[in-house]
Write the structure tokens for this entry.
Amino acid sequence: MIGETITIAVDFDGTIVEDKYPRIGKPIIFAFETLKKLQDKGHRLILWTYRKGPELEEAVQFCKDNGIVFYAVNNSFPEEEFNLSHSRKINADIFIDDRNVGGLMSWGEIYQELVGEKPISNKYTTKKKGWFSFLK
């Protein structure tokens, strides 16, 4: 995926914010920063959530207040109209959800996986020596 523009469907509760549904939880560390960086790289973000009605509007506004405006919300594209005769599956390349098999990766790991940039390492960090470090 590195170098390509992709469409990413992102869950809200438990993924962008702590799960406090129907209230809005605290933002999960680095979620908004990572989403902003992904948008800056040209990726399309779709909010893909169980929320509807006022709870959905509140979540969309919360994201907007934190600098994220989604390409689409609970749709594959902005102009899509809900139709009971069609599948509700969102057409996206990647899905980010706290209910993934194995759980949700950290937002730093998600960014590295999708963009391929490694974190800056601190060359001055020293490793702690264990009790049996003399055996190494």
